[in-house]
Amino acid sequence: DDDTFSNVFCENSKKLINVHLFALAAKYYSLSDLGVCTPLEDVLEALRGDNQGTTGIKTDEFMNNKKSHEVQVMSELVDSIANYCGIKQVIDIGSGKGYLSSFLSMQYNLKVYGIDSSNTNTNGAHERNRKLKKHWRAYQSRGRANLKSQRLEKANGRPVESEIKCKAISEKPLNNDSSLQSQDQVTIQDLVPSCGFTEVATSETSKQTEVDLVTRTQSDESKLSEEILAILNVLPADAVEVSSSSQCSCGELCEEERAQRKMASLKAKASKSSESNLYFPLTSCITAETELSDIITDLEDCMMVGLHTCGDLAANTLRIFTAKPEIKAVCSVGCCYHLLSEQFENQEDCPEEVWGFPMCQYLKDKGWCCGRNARMSACLALERVAVGQMLPTESLFYRAVLQVIIEEIYGVTKSDRHVGKTFSKSSSFIDYVRKSLKKLELDDSKLPDSCIMDYHEKYKHRMNELEAFNMLKVVLAPCIEVLILLDRLCYLKEQDNIAWSGLVKLFDPVKSPRCYAVIALKKQSCF
Fold first, then answer.
1. pLDDT tens-digit profile of 106-119?
2. Signal sequence span per UniProt (predicted)?
C-alpha cells in the first residue's frame, strides 16, 4: 500500500514525526526485505551441478578474522565460477596486499593478476606472497606423505569406495538437463542464462569420472592443509624451501627407467616453475578506459574480481567487464560509497565524463543524485550497531564542534583537505582541534585554549541529540546502499551480452558490513 509510510514525515514541514514508521520503512526497502538477492547457496549449487567444491582450508592462520572470512567465502565462489566458465585466469582489481589473489592461486591453482594503484601495496604483496609460498611448499610436502599413509589406512576399511563413486557418476552424467539453467532450487528465474554455458559444463561420462577422481584427490589433500597450516606462523620468514626430490642411486636402473625418471623430474621442475608464477602483483591505475592487454601481455579468457573495490573502481570494473570480450565473468564487492563521483551532484554538464553514479540509463534519465551526506550514511554498519557495537559518539561530537569552529572563526565552509583519524591520536578536545587545524592548513595561533573549550561546553548538552541523529542515519544506511547496488545491477541488465547478473550476499555483515557482491556471466556466444 502506497499510503503505509505516508505519515513518516509532516506533509507541511517535511519533518520526521514518526520514528517507528521511519524504521519500518527503512527495513522494508533494504536488500534483505526486497527479495532481489540470489542466495549464495543457490548460486554455488547451480554452478557446480553434481560436483562438490574442494574442502576449504582455514585462512585465519595468516589473516585477521575479517579478512579470513572474506577470502574464504569469495575464493570458493570465484573458483566455482572459473570452473563453470572453463577459465584459469583471474584479474583481481584493487588487489591491495594480495590476500585474495595469493589464496586463489595457491589453494585453487588459478593464474591471478592482482592490479593495484599503490606501488607500496604491490611491493608488499610480492613480499607477502614470497614468504607464504615458502611455507606453503614446506607443509604441502609433508602433507602429501601423511596423505599416502591415511589412504592406506582407509583402503583397508573401505575397499570399494572408489567403485561406488564411479558408479554414482556414471549414473548421472552431466548434460543439458543438469546444467545451470535447470536447477529447481534457484529462486530467481533468470539465474540461468537463456543461452547458458551448457557446453562448458557438458562432458562425457568417462571424462567426468576422471575429473571427479582428481577433485576427490585434491579435496583429500586440502583436508590436510588445515593441520599443516597450524605451524604457519611458527616458521621463520626465511624458511628454506623443501628440495624437489631426494637423491637416490641410479646405477642399477636400466636405460628405460632412467629416461622415465628424467622425464618425471623435468615435468616436476616445470610444474614447480609454473606453480611459482601463478600470482603476479602489478601496479596500475584502473579507469573505465583501461586496456587490460597493455598491462597483461598474456591476457586470455578470464574473469574479473574485486574485494572491496573503492569508490568509482567498483563501477569501472563493471564497465570494463561489459566492454572486453575476453572477460567472461565478474564478481565485485564495492565499498567506500562516499568516494563515488556523481554526475548530477554539482549540476555540471560533462557528457564525456565517466561517473561512478548513476550507471544505469533509468537513473540517468531521472537525473538522480544521492549527495555526499547520503553516500557517507550508506557506509555505516547497521548490523554492527544492532549487536551492540555502538557508534563512536564522542569522536562524532568532536568533529561536529570542529566544523562549527572552522565556519565561525575561519569562515571556511568547504575544504579539499581531510581531518582523517585525528581523534584516536588526540589526548583532549583542545589537542584534537589544534591537530585538525594544522591538517586543514589553518592558523591555530589566533585561537586560545579557552575559546576552544567554550565551544565544547556550548554544545556538550546536545551530544545525545547528535547520537540520536546518527542512529537515524544508521537505520537509513541500507536503503541508500540498495540504490547504489541496484543501479549497478540495472546497468548489467541493460547490456545485451550478459546472460545472467545478480546480487548475492557473500559475507556476514557483522564481520564485513559491505557484504553484497555484484555477479555477472557473459552469454555463451561471447565465449
1. 889 999 999 988 76
2. none
CA 105 to chain centre: 16
315 contact partners, CB below 8 Å, separation of at least 6: 288, 334, 340, 355, 356, 357, 359, 488
Residues 389-448 have pLDDT tens digits of 888 899 999 999 999 999 999 999 888 888 989 999 999 999 999 999 999 999 999 899
Nearest to 514 by CA among 523, 505, 522: 505
Q: Are 368 and 344 in contact (CB under 8 A)?
A: yes
d(CA 358, CA 370): 9
Beta strands across the sheet bearing 327-335: 279-283, 111-116, 89-93, 302-310, 327-335, 516-522, 498-505
Q: Per-residue pLDDT for 510 more than 80?
A: yes
User: Are 304 and 93 spatial neighbours (Cβ–Cβ below 8 Å)?
Assistant: yes
Q: Are 55 and 147 in contact (CB under 8 A)?
A: no
DSSP state of 301: S
396, 416 Cβ separation under 8 angstroms: no
- Is 105 in contact with 281 (CB distance < 8 Å)? no
Spatial contact of 71 and 101, defined as CB atoms under 8 Å apart: no
Sequence-separated (6 or more) residues with CB below 8 Å from residue 70: 100, 307, 308, 506, 507, 511, 512
Rounded Cα distance between 102 and 79, Å, is: 13
Alpha carbon distances (Å) from 119 to 123, 218, 284, 336:
6, 35, 8, 21
DSSP code at position 37: B
The DSSP 8-state label assigned to residue 507 in this structure reads S
Q: Identify the three-state secondary structure at position 329.
A: strand
Q: What is the DSSP letter of 57?
A: P
Exposure string over 196-220, b if 16+ CB within 10 A, otherwise e: bbbebbbeeeeebbeebeeeeeeeb
Chain length of the chain: 527
Strands of 455-513, DSSP E: 498-505
Query: In which band, very low, low, confident or very high, does the pLDDT at 347 lie, cut at 50, 70 and 90?
Result: low
Residue type at 490 in one-letter notation = C
Please, are residues 202 and 178 in contact by the beta-carbon 8 Å criterion?
no
Residue type for 80, please?
S
Encode 122-142: b = buried (16+ Cβ within 10 Å), e = exposed: bebbeebbebbbbbbbbbbee
In whole angstroms, what is the distance from residue 467 CA to residue 474 CA?
10
The helix/strand/coil state of 67 is helix
Residue 100 contacts residue 121 (beta carbons within 8 Å): no
- Contact indicator for 117, 285 with CB cutoff of 8 Å: yes
What is the dihedral sign for C-alpha 297, 281, 137, 215?
A: negative
Reading the block at residue 494, the C-alpha cell is 541493460
- Is the preceding peptide bond at 358 cis, omega within 30 degrees of 0? yes
Burial of 271 (0-12, 13-18, 19+ CB in 10 A): exposed
Q: Are 470 and 23 in contact (CB under 8 A)?
A: no
Q: What are phi and psi of 231, to 5 degrees?
A: -95, 0
Contact 42, 191 (CB under 8 A): yes
- How far apart CA 219 and CA 87 sit, in angstroms, is 20
